[in-house]
Every structure is written in C-alpha cells, then in structure tokens.
Amino acid sequence: MFINPYNKQQNPHIVASARGDVTGDGIKDYIYLTGIRKEDSPFIQNITLLIKDGRTGSIVSVPLKTNAGYNPTIFLGDFTGNRINDILIAITSGGSGGITYYYIYSALNNVPKLLFDYEAFNQRYNYNVIYRNNYKVEVINTTRKTRFIIDISYREKDYLNEIYNEDGSLKSPIEGFVNPLSGLYPIDFDSNGVYELLGYQRISGRYAADALGYLQTSLEWDKNRFSIREQYVSIYGSKY
Question: What's the order of all strands across the beta sheet hosting 146-151?
C-alpha cells in the first residue's frame, strides 16, 4: 500500500491507525483510516477504512457513509464475544452540539461487516422531553415505554421565572429534545474480555445549549445487534 504523505490536498493520507488481529487468523493486521485534509484545516474529507491483512498483505477498502469530520480515531476490541477484535471508528462533527459519528466493523475472514451505525442507533429510539408543573421535566423513551423525572428546581431563579408561575405551574407548554450521540465509549463492564458500549446523549430544554442532563445508555451485543442493557439519566450538580 502506498499513500502519498506530501500531496495531502489531492491524495488521501493516513489520519489514524491501529494494529491487531481483526481477521481471525491469529496474525496482527494493520488498520488505517485515510482521508484528505485541506491545507491549514483540521477538517478531513473522504475518510475511508483500510484493512491490510497481516499474513497476505491484501487490502480491503471500506468507504464510510459519513466520511467527513474531525479527529478520526480507531479502537480495537472484541464486542461480540468471538475473541476477535472488532473496529470502532469515531469521527467528531465539530458542531456546537458535540455530535460524533460512530461505526463498528467486524473483519472476520477479511469480510467487513457493519455491526454498529450511529445513525441507526439515533433513529431506533424515540424520546419526548416535556416540562411539567412543580419544576419537573419528564423524559420518556417512547420506544421502550420507560420514563425519567428531572427536578430542575435548583436552576437559576431567572430561568425558572421565565417558565413557571409563582405557584409552580407552567406558564405555557414546553417541550425539549434528546440530541444524537455525542459520546460512545467501550467499557468491559463484566471484566470478561468482551466490551460493551456506553453512549451519551444530551437532554436539551428550550434550546440545544439548555442542557438538562445526559441520557446514558449501555449497550451489549445480543446475537446480531447491540441492544440496551441499562439506561440512566444523569444531571448536573449544584452548590448548596
């Protein structure tokens, strides 16, 4: 494999790399992300996954559906329990919401297979975020039929006065929203050598920067896809 490291504006160059057995033959392979970076800009386009077989030297190229962003990274780990490394790819969007793009691929026997797609995850679960009387916000996972209650009585007085009357009743109906994934972290919760995933999604109130807390979702491999293991809501602390 030859990648021109000098003509970065026209030809792809390596932007992230890792080494480990991902094909299952016991020999370490070479895993690269390549992309095109414009001069004097950290923004990378045409990001592509390349898997070089450590035994044969053959290369498999995998184009990514979302292939542009910042700071692409690779993590190798077993997510399915077959004792063979999978490939976790992360690309930050660079937007104010901190949204990040994630893919997980298996490359068993040199056949790339998509195990996790951040867009499919974001679309799979639906949420309602509804302000209630008495300084409460209800977060409902309508897909799983579960709900969480956030107490926002600790928020700034000016903030609460814009939303509530003196008796704690809402001045008018308000709905917030759950943002797409901003973090997805590999964690071996069971210490058994198989990684689970911990995802973070910001819960926003009246606007994106009005952060009420974070939805934390742990995922584990279940036969042929990642399923929710547990889900929590975390909130910011306040001085007392």
Answer: 146-151, 136-141, 127-132, 175-187, 196-204, 211-222, 225-234
Same domain, 157 and 95: no
pTM for the model: 0.92
CA distances to 34, 151, 185 from 2, rounded to whole Å, are 11, 57, 32
The H or E element that residue 211 is part of is strand 211-222
Q: Tell me what the mean pLDDT of segment 69-91 comes to.
A: 98
**Which residue segment(s) compose the domain that 33 sits in?**
13-117
Task: Report if residue 183 sits inside a domain.
Answer: yes
59 & 96 share domain? yes
pLDDT tens digits, 162-191: 999 999 999 999 999 999 999 999 999 999
Residues 26, 69 within the same domain:
yes
Identify the DSSP state of 170.
B
State the alpha helices, DSSP H only, in 151-223.
157-163
pLDDT tier at 97 (50, 70, 90 boundaries)? confident
User: Which stretches of 107-185 are DSSP H helices?
Assistant: 118-124, 157-163
